Amino acid sequence: MYEIEEKVIKILKKNKIDIVATVPCDKAKDLFYLLHSDPELREIPIIREEDGIGIGAGVYLAGGRPAIAIQSSGLGNCFNALLSLSVTYELPLPIIASWRGFYDEKIPAQIPFNSVLPDALRVWKIPCTVIEEPSEIGMVDEVIEAAYDGNTPSVALISPKAWAGVEEDKVERAESTTAERFPERGRISRLRYERVIREPVMTRYDAIKIISEYLHEEAVVSNIGIPSKELYDAGDRDLNFYMLGSYSQASSVGFGISLATAREVIVLDGDGSLLASNVLPVLAAERPTNLSIFCLDNGTLGSTGDQLTNAYMQLDLELMAVSAGINETGKVHTEQELRSAIENLYESDGPRFIHVMVKPGNADVPNIPLMPVAIKERVMEHLHGTARYLRTSPGGRGVYGTS
Q1: Which of 63, 141, 231, 363 lies most in the core, judged by the most C-beta atoms within 10 Å?
Q2: What is the largest CA-CA distance in the chain?
Q3: Preceding amide of 366 cis, omega within 30
Q4: The pTM is what?
Q5: Mind listing the pLDDT tens digit for each residue in 280-297?
Q6: What pLDDT score was predicted for residue 301?
Q7: Rounded average pLDDT over 185-196
């Protein structure tokens, strides 16, 4: 009944893919049904395809084998992250893309981008394999091998023709199967929230230096631009992953790492990047217990000249995290409050969100003297070590386990 789709699933398993981020496509809907229900593959439903690039990067850094499955239109949302993260750091990522705008396309809006997509991928030197016939579906295996052998993103563009010829009983069975997947949805949703946002007294660099004092065995992902330079200056560590590009992807990368390791993961993100991301509802739904996000909120885009963001006066980032579904949140303004939050960080399972109010402005710190691949390699070397002491630094409460 699902011969072609099941072949794709078997190829993923053969290549030891363990986590698949997904944004569905109607033309390949049966594949997405199977991905969701397969017990050997962990599906991470995402809201925006770009976040899948960050999640895949983090999963790979921590030793996992990621892939993403999307509609080809979603590649338009991914190109900057693919080039500035996957390509720049030489991170493998197989992309299974249902190719729209090419074969028997009924929606005009799908055509302009998708009809030239193979040419665009060639321009950016991203390997691409076009699969047009059901008999060619085995080429997905070659796409995955190309990604992991070449440390690169690699795209399988699968035409609707490859899924075509679907018998009517298959469609009916698929619809019946999906109907069984919908549990009772009724629930109570409550929100009681009131906070006083005071004038910040710390700079972002002050906060980063304080957080650095407590780091021990945690993996840390720092936001792009000057925050990463400030973290490097405050205390370089082998377990620090410095984001040199890929705006809005720091929390996605940290989330990906948390999915593939039992080690505690800390993200130093910013208000601008988080406002540009769609990952908070996703990680709230997946509930990684070992992930903490410190939102260093200066109310500006610090790396581009301190232009004000909507968080400066209008929005409360902690409230945004709460409304996304994150239960463990807090807001800090002073050094004492920040230290208390860190020292009590692991009293509850994650995901955790600490909203750190800081003043605008950047520290005068030098550039990071490390190339992207060197950053990747040393993080991976130390993430994959045998002794992984968990939850030890804030307050030194002892070893929780190894992985």
Answers
A1: 231
A2: 66
A3: no
A4: 0.92
A5: 999 999 999 999 999 999
A6: 86
A7: 91
Q: Tens digit of pLDDT for each residue in 337-390? A: 999 999 999 999 999 999 999 999 999 999 999 999 999 999 999 998 633 334
Pick from 270, 280, 289: nearest CA to 207: 270
Mean pLDDT, to the nearest integer, of 325-345? 97
Closest by CA position to 46, among listed 318, 284, 346: 284
Distance CA(208)–CA(391), nearest Å, equals 19
Closest CA to 262 of 68, 398, 63: 63
Which single residue is written with the structure tokens 């994959």? 384
Residue 199 clears pLDDT 90, i.e. is over it: yes
How high is the pLDDT of residue 398? 32
Give the integer Cα–Cα distance in Å for 358 and 360: 7
What are the chain's domains?
3-180 (3.40.50.970), 204-383 (3.40.50.970)
Measure Cα distances from 342 to 239, 352, 403 in Å.
18, 11, 23
Cα 207 to Cα 214: distance, rounded to the nearest angstrom: 12
CB 92 within 8 A of CB 147: yes
- Cα 296 to Cα 212, 268, 302, 324, 383: the distances in Å are 14, 7, 11, 18, 25
With a pLDDT cut of 70, the percent of the chain lying above it is 91
Three-state SS string across the chain, please?
CCHHHHHHHHHHHHCCCCEEEECCCHHHHHHHHHHHHCCCCEEEECCCHHHHHHHHHHHHHCCCCEEEEEEHHHHHHCHHHHHHHHHCCCCCEEEEEECCCCCCCCCHHHHHHHCCHHHHHHHCCCCEEEECCHHHCCHHHHHHHHHHHHCCEEEEEECHHHHCCCCHHHHHHHHHHHHHCCCCCCCCCCCCCCCCCCCCCCEHHHHHHHHHHHCCCCEEEECCCHHHHHHHHHHCCCCEEECCCCCCCHHHHHHHHHHHCCCCEEEEEEHHHHHCCCCHHHHHHHCCCCEEEEEEECCEEHHHCCEECCCCCCCCHHHHHHHHCCCEEEEECCHHHHHHHHHCHHHCCCCEEEEEECECCCCCCCCCCCCHHHHHHHHHHHHCCCCCCCCCCCCCCCCCCCC
